[in-house]
User: Fold this.
Amino acid sequence: MTAALRRQLKWCTMGIEMNPLDNLKNFIRPFVHMYNTRIMNSYLTYELEERYSSVLDQQHIPGKSVIDLAMKAYLDENPGSTGIPAPFKSAAMAQIKLFVFAGHDTTSTATVFTFHLLSKHPEVLQKVREEHDAVLGPVSNVPSLLASKPQLLNQLTYTLAAIKEALRIYPTVSTIRSGQRDLHLVSPNGHSFPTESCMIWGDHYSNHHNPHVWNRPEDYLPERWLCTEEDSLYPPKHAWRPFERGPRNCIGQELALTEIKLILALTIREFDVADAYAEFDTARGNTGNMKVNGQRAYMVRIGGGGHPANGYPCRVRCLE
Ligand code: HEM
Assistant:
């Protein structure tokens, strides 16, 4: 399933190719898509059938996954149903593929960059750990405590600020739209730009690092998410866009932030993470300037989104 999804993404054009030669792939693309779709759908059909039986079987308590809940809702509305109807199956498969595509890589990259920035800012790391001590108590109790009181994650306000600030410095994706006839972009000084036949790229990285928009844009300052409007660090309206804004913003943003908070709650007091770029570069004989903007863990585009350079070589140390 994973391999087929990855292959499928490589072959998608989404109508926004910068390299016109990519369009040459058009000829075989439909066959590749059919092949990958068949692999993904057969795996998902198997999973859906399994979930369906587990929901139908009163002895078995369904999980809280989106798909379990959707099936339960469907069965509540259609009590006589004896199998998964084709339209439901097809909609469910499309949604699962979209969620897996949009949700896994973005969240894992944001988690890695959060760990990275915490490791580079011991004073922030210390505050995060102190907050976990205060809200969650002893490390060994955290899994059972959060299983019974998951709402405690909402009290990790400084941790959330640290994650939001990491997403500002390293927004893992950007957004792109096709221009349209009669759609003009108007700059603050009144210049109007037609968009027909253009791609419009919402470049979050540049926006998030723009000194005309942000005060001290290169500094990792979770405090900016906790200060009041009078403070010069206060984030300008609509400037933070890692999940985009408006009607097509990220449907999974709350889930992503909760996941990252949960990962930190379960690990940050037990492990130290430190990048191992120096070791990595020595082993590969990399000389010369390997930094961008002073950062070795600069962001590169792999597949659809941004990732830390060279897959983020690092060392993880278990604390006493
Ligand atoms: C840190 C993690 C994440 C980031 C940075 C992120 C970012 C984004 C952005 C920028 C968009 C808008 C794309 C556009 O308008 O072109 C988007 C859309 C979307 N995201 Fe996320 N996302 C994250 C996690 C997730 C998760 C965990 C899920 C679901 C499990 C998810 C599901 C979606 C879906 C379904 C859309 C399309 C919404 C629509 O078009 O109406 N995302 N995401």
About this structure: Residues 98-99, 102-103, 106-107, 110, 172-173, 175, 242-244, 248-252, 255-256 surround protoporphyrin IX containing FE (CB under 6 Å). The longest strand covers residues 271-275.
